[in-house]
Amino acid sequence: SGANLSGANLSFANLSRASLNSARISGADLSGANLSFADLSGAALNSARISGADLTNANLSGLNLSGLDLSFARLSGADLRNSNLRGAILSNANLFRADLRNSNLREGILTDADLFGANMGFTNLRGANLLRADLRGAILDNANLGGINATNLKACPSSLPSGWVCENKSLIQR
To answer: In the chain, count of helices (H) and strands (E)?
Structure first.
């Protein structure tokens, strides 16, 4: 669409199924907004406020979401492939069956996040905090887990990179 929504107050707006590809949404308030099934591919979301938004099955592939607060966001089934989420806050976010393959979650905060069935193959999780996260059924094949804090997990993932195990609800490098 290429729309310019920079700085707009869209909190709690119903944007379900909206085509916002290549839109400029920098600095906008999308907190609590319904963006389920929306296409945000190519959108500029710098400094946007997205906490608590419903992004169920949304297309966020390839986006720069670094440093954004996505806490309590609903991202189940969302396409986040090849996205930059470095330092993003995803505490208490629902990422049930989200596709995070090849994404950068370096130093991301995913405490208490629901990653049940999420595909995080080839994802960079170096230095990320997954304290108390639910990794049940999650795929972490070939993920970079160096320096990760993944303790007190609610459940272990179904697969891990070579040299990693899940013991006593913690990810440990062997």
So the answer is: 0, 2
